[in-house]
Amino acid sequence: MWRGAFSLEKKIFLQTAVAPYGIFKVSHGLRYTAQLRQRAAMLEIGTHVIENPVFLAPMAGVTDRPFREACTLQGAGYAASEMISSDTLLYATAKTRHRIVRANNDVPHAVQIAGSEPTAMAAAAVLNVQHGAQVIDINMGCPAKKVCNRLAGSALLETPDLVRDILRAVVAAVDVPVTLKIRTGPTPENRNGVAIAKLAQDEGIACLAVHGRTRSDKFRGSAEYDTIAAIVDAVSIPVIANGDIHSGDDARRVLESTGAAGVMIGRAAQGNPWVFREITACLNDEVIPARPSLTEVGEALIVHLKGCHQLYGDFRGVRIARKHIAWYCKGVRNAAVFREAVNKIDDPCEQLNYVEHFFARPECYEIAA
Ligand SMILES: Cc1cc2nc3c(=O)[nH]c(=O)nc-3n(C[C@H](O)[C@H](O)[C@H](O)COP(=O)(O)O)c2cc1C
Fold this sequence. Notes:
The protein is α/β, with parallel strands linked by helices. It has two domains: 8-283, Aldolase class I (TIM Barrel, Alpha-Beta Barrel), CATH 3.20.20.70; 294-365, Non-ribosomal Peptide Synthetase Peptidyl Carrier Protein, Chain A, CATH 1.10.1200. The protein has 13 helices and twelve strands. It has an eight-stranded parallel barrel, surrounded by seven helices. Helix 11 (294-328) packs across helix 13. It is globular and about 60 Å long.
């Protein structure tokens, strides 16, 4: 429905029909909220229907299979893998293989690739599709030095011709939808997000996620949404707004101010997959569910940890699990004492027992007077 060129009338009709919970968008860029709110609207990525346009953001070292499963269980409508390099030689390493394991959920298996060489990116896309990827996502949003030093991630935004070559090569190489994640531009002085978005649409990108910061902003300051609104106005493919969305109210405000087709949540989901049920309820005008009880948090964490142990094996699994334990117990009474103790544990069963005990009786972890 979203792909290809539309007449202006058709474009306005479609955007009106699927606009999130009644934000109507008109051709001269004004937005207004319909009096009768609709449910958060589904969107399409190629042939995939995304029922709930509340996405989990890809986060290297975080959004592995257990984490994606925890988030989709709480309502995330979409969850791409962690980024993997376009260097297919690395696919033999355990680290890369773990990153692309399919999650046990009913959202499309989307794998994010990063690189700067069109032919290598196309080859990586093909290999991932052969291994089951149903969507290929291209990373042009990551500001990490390790990635940008090789002119990949958000560094590519400075070279639109290379962006075009990469998108063209990848889209031509695979018959699954290709999506793109960008920042608003390389620097605040050069917010070229609109130009990149138009180029992406012309090259057949099926959906575009935009983080409302430039590459040079890294994670400083606040995300800005005006550039995202301008991108939404400029293209007819679905645009997903990302950056600093922590709650249902944030999501609603960002959708209202940008007219985006959906929102993408990153850091707010760390240790809090329940943020997806809160945002989903808010966008659907439903009663906001209560915060999870300590028991519910403990039970979800146990499932998550077992997933880490199973995916990575005992040694790496226990270590990778530690950061998730720290995030889940943020704000819980006596968490600091508990964290210090649990981080010394190397055995997976002992780690599970310790976590179970803490969430049942956090008062036992008080510092002895
Ligand atoms: C730990 C971490 C790892 C990230 N890794 C990736 C990545 O692999 N690919 C990517 O496109 N963005 C990556 N990002 C950026 C996020 O997808 C997202 O754009 C950013 O965190 C802003 O959203 P937020 O404010 O909701 O966190 C990462 C962010 C964090 C915090």
